[in-house]
Amino acid sequence: MKYMDPFNSKFNAADLRLKPEGDLITRHLSDMDDMYHDREAADELLEENPLIYRYYNVEVPEERGHLAHCVSMVFPGDVGGEYFMTKGHFHEIEDTAEIYYTIQGRGKMLMQTPAPESRVETVDMLPGNISYVPPLWAHRTINTGVQPLVFLAVYPGEAGHEYGIIEEKGFKKILVEEDGEPVLKDNPEYPD
Ligand code: S6P
Ligand code: ZN
């Protein structure tokens, strides 16, 4: 392994930007509209095509020994009652874990083990919470609040991302707002 020089990144809470910016990824509704359940609500909101989330990947080699890290922010909002959320993924190297540190906002992380068990758990994401994603669990972050949900994620450099399974099947549960509260419900479209 080659030496790499140590460095800092700085997150500015006032404008929600990271410096240096690294690799900035943005996800609008049109990048994931078929992940939401209310097709009609999604179609209506597509006219406006809101920014759902963005994340800054700090540039480190994607290889074993390094710790990939990034700052993400999921904006507040919903599609027919289903909160704005990330696409969610498994890691390509399945036995790699991840740590999330919530900086600001309010939300939940939805996690699920691979089929056929497909066991679902959620943990709260509140400022100061350190959330552990154990190896094997798919993970999606959901903003249940009124401010941007901002968090730092750290994971092994070699982990990689597997989006296909979630794109195809979704998660077994969905998080929707009912009477102002987040409620976890069965995903009616989840295959048996
Ligand atoms: C990476 C980590 C996060 C997400 C980011 C966006 O392992 O879990 O940095 O990449 O929050 O979510 P997604 O599901 O679009 O990658
Ligand atoms: Zn991850």
Question: What does the model show?
Answer:
This protein has 192 residues and is mainly β. Helix content is 7%, strand content 44%. It has one domain (18-186): Sandwich (Jelly Rolls), CATH 2.60.120.10. The chain has two helices and 17 strands. Strand 10 (107-112) and strand 11 form a beta hairpin. The mean pLDDT is 97. The structure holds D-sorbitol-6-phosphate (S6P) and zinc ion (ZN). D-sorbitol-6-phosphate binds next to strand 5, strand 13 and strand 14.
Keywords summarizing the entry:
mainly beta, Jelly Rolls, three-stranded antiparallel beta sheet, 17 strands, binds D-sorbitol-6-phosphate, binds zinc ion
Order of helices and strands: EEEHEEEEEEEEEEEEHEE
CATH fold annotation: Jelly Rolls
Major sheet summary line: 6 strands, antiparallel
CATH superfamily: Jelly Rolls
**Helix percentage:** under 10%
Discrete helix count: 2
Could you give the distance between the termini?
A: 45 Å
- Main sheet: strand order: 3-4-5-14-9-12
Q: Ions, cofactors, ligands: which are bound?
A: D-sorbitol-6-phosphate, zinc ion
The low-confidence parts are none
- Strand fraction band? 35-45%
Derived structural class: mainly beta
